[in-house]
Write a structure and sequence with these properties.
The complex is a heterodimer of chains A (443) and B (114). Chain A has 443 residues and is of the alpha/beta class. Chain A folds into three domains: 3-52, no CATH class; 60-123 and 299-442, Rossmann fold, CATH 3.40.50; 125-294, Dimethylsulfoxide Reductase, domain 2 (3-Layer(aba) Sandwich). Chain A is 40% helix and 19% strand. Chain A has helices spanning 3-9, 46-53, 72-84, 99-112, 125-134, 141-147, 158-161, 163-170, 212-223, 232-236, 240-252, 262-265, 271-284, 301-312, 334-339, 353-356, 359-367, 379-383, 422-442, and strands spanning 11-17, 29-34, 37-42, 63-65, 68-70, 89-93, 115-118, 150-154, 186-191, 203-206, 255-260, 289-294, 318-319, 326-327, 345-349, 370-373, 386-388, 399-402, 408-411. In chain A, the strands form four sheets. Chain A has a nine-stranded mixed beta sheet. In chain A, helix 4 packs parallel to helix 19 (422-442). Chain A is globular and about 70 Å long. The model of chain A has no long low-confidence stretch (mean pLDDT 95). Chain B has four helices and six strands. Chain B has helices spanning 13-21, 26-32, 39-45, 85-89, and strands spanning 5-10, 34-37, 52-56, 61-68, 78-82, 106-112. A six-stranded mixed β-barrel of chain B has the order 1-5-2-4-3-6. In chain B, strand 3 and strand 4 (61-68) form a beta hairpin. The longest helix of chain B has 9 residues, at 13-21. The relative contact order of chain B is 0.30. The model of chain B has no long low-confidence stretch (mean pLDDT 93). At the A-B interface, helix 2, helix 5, helix 12, helix 15 and helix 17 of A face strand 1, helix 1 and helix 4 of B.
Chain lengths: 443, 114
């Protein structure tokens, strides 16, 4: 048997591997690896198991140009020409790749004067605007685990979207100052529907759709001792007595937190809804320790916020077209630059705007040349002028990701991929873009 | 056809696990094309589980399979659709200076496919 065949057949255990499916970024995985397949993912949740066990090295050319197989070098050349010749290019995605790759993507955007934007803009982008508006009283999930005795989930369904959030960080674990674990915490869920998360909550509020702001603002008023008309129940679905009870619990807890989901940031009102939640948490610090944190989705979307922030000063929706960064959600965010038909070229990293953007944005994306980097086939890769099939971060590629509470976590890959990493492809594109720009200057 | 419903797209376990198998695979497509409706609304509109219906917003329309939600999960007038290509096709391009189109709480109408 050859050395390669022995390697293929041997069983290895990878300890403390990191799952990058969701923003929990659980780094206590124990993976059983047989050749190029992960056969067990101990400690993983249902989503994590699907992430690891469905990972296969697909038969695919490393690059395709207009759907035809090409070499990496040919793909890089075409990509560099598209980007260097564009007048209003955009760089988008970035939440499912390493910080090291994100950094190179921002650098390319800087060289070509692009708008750089991440999937944050269609996720918790409005929350990012709210942080700038009213500030964020923040903490780590470790502090929640060790201290929180009142945990409120608002506009989210963690049982299905972030299954280990409860068991690892926020509800179940025994903490230093919460020695009883779940029994020592009160869990509240606020949502417009009775999701699977409701069964785990001590208190469940089913509020009327689009009334989050009103309920949050009423709670703020009650915290400050302002009288509220009992008719608020007809408006919001929540009675004054229920609100008074929760306010009492919030004021008297030792450490409270509101984890808010996209039920706030994606519903009409968006950043104003989030500002209301953040303001409520801030107000409660007159009485106790209280925090508010977004529950983030993609594995490294928080890393994207951090990397774009430390490179440009802003977290998303940044234009580098004038040679210096300008931040303006609604103007430089990708949904807008596509839907308004402004962008004339795009580079999309680890994202699928052709499958999840609005119809006008999708239609414009079809009209312009664009480059897609993604390990898997999607509507976006199918329509790309140049598609690079890349290795999967966390499973094949090492690097750094940020957990949803802004804690950086290292990746411990399970096995190598025949495909290059996003970072490798992006570095090659950056090098060639700089050469093309330099040649243009000298001519 | 005249009723205005409020649509909430969101994540489900199956949507998440099927996503890992591939967005172009049957499981993901089936999950993201299943619209959950309050049982009272199902009865009132004469819909039965598995029936194909058309859902229309101000910005787009898609055809979906309808399914009665578990009693008490959805109040009358509220619909739930797992995130995916169909839910996104109902969004408009306007982001109200946030970068984010209205993606939850969309006004929609339902129509039985003949």
């Amino acid at each position: 048997m050859s050395d390669a065949a022995v390697m293929e057949s041997e069983i290895r255990i990878v300890k403390d591997a990191t799952c990058t499916f969701c923003g929990c970024v659980c780094d206590d995985m124990e993976l059983t690896v047989e050749g190029k397949t992960i056969t067990k993912a101990k400690n993983a949740c249902v989503l994590g198991k699907a992430w690891f066990l469905n990972h296969h090295i697909e038969e695919h050319a490393v690059a395709t140009i207009e759907g035809k197989p090409a070499t990496l070098e040919e793909g890089v050349e075409r990509a560099a020409q598209i980007l260097a010749n564009a007048r209003y290019p955009i760089v988008y995605g970035l939440s499912d790749t390493t910080c090291e790759a994100q950094r190179v993507a921002v650098s390319i955007a800087d060289w070509i004067g692009a708008c750089v934007d991440t999937t944050t803009s269609v996720c918790h982008g409005p929350s990012g605007m709210a942080f700038q508006g009213v500030g964020e009283v923040t903490c780590t999930l470790g502090e929640v685990k060790n201290r929180a005795d009142l945990v409120i989930f608002w506009g989210g369904n963690p049982a299905e979207s972030h299954p280990r959030h409860w068991t690892r960080y926020s509800l179940m674990p025994k903490g230093q100052f919460v020695p009883e674990g779940r029994k020592g915490r009160t869990a509240v869920l606020v949502d417009v529907r009775k999701s699977k998360s409701a069964a785990a909550a001590d208190i469940f509020w089913q509020i009327k759709p689009r009334k989050d702001f009103e309920v949050l603002w009423a709670l703020r008023a009650l915290v400050k001792g302002v009288d509220i008309d009992p008719a608020i129940e007809q408006e919001t679905g929540i009675s004054l007595a229920q609100m008074q009870d929760l306010v009492q619990r919030m004021k008297s807890c030792k450490f409270g937190i509101i984890f808010f989901g996209m039920g706030l940031s994606m519903t009409r009102g968006k950043h104003m809804n989030v500002e209301a939640a953040l303001s409520l948490a801030r107000d409660l610090n007159d009485y106790t320790r209280f925090y508010a944190k977004p529950v983030r989705g993609h594995g490294n979307v928080t890393g994207a916020d951090n990397v774009v922030s430390w490179q440009t000063g802003y977290p998303f929706g940044v234009s580098l077209g004038r040679g210096y960064p300008r931040f303006n959600p609604g103007e430089f965010t990708t949904s807008d630059t596509l839907a308004r038909g402004e962008a004339d070229a795009a580079m999309i990293i680890a994202s699928d705007p052709a499958g999840n953007f609005s119809q006008p944005a999708r239609e414009h994306l079809k009209r312009i040349p664009y480059i897609a980097l993604d390990p898997h086939e999607s509507e976006t890769t199918r329509g790309a002028t140049v598609h690079f099939c890349t290795a999967t971060y966390g499973i094949n590629v090492p690097g750094t990701v940020y957990r949803m509470d802004d804690v950086p976590i290292p990746l411990r890959p399970a096995f190598d991929s025949p495909f290059p990493s996003d970072e490798t492809v992006l570095r090659a594109i950056e090098k060639r873009v700089r050469e093309v720009l330099r040649e243009r200057q000298t001519n | 056809m005249d009723d205005i419903f409020i649509l909430i797209p969101g994540r489900t376990s199956r949507q998440g696990t099927a996503l890992n198998e591939g967005k172009l695979k049957a499981d993901f497509i089936e999950e993201t094309q299943t619209l959950f409706i309050c049982p009272d609304d199902m009865a009132r509109r004469g819909f039965v589980d598995g029936e194909r219906i058309r859902i229309r917003s101000e910005f787009g329309q898609v055809e979906l399979t309808c399914k009665g939600a578990k009693a008490g999960d959805l109040p009358p007038g509220l619909l739930f659709l797992p995130y995916g290509d169909p839910s996104s096709r109902l969004m408009g391009g306007e982001t109200h200076c946030t970068g984010m189109p209205d993606s939850k709480g969309m006004d929609v109408q339902l129509e039985k496919l003949l």
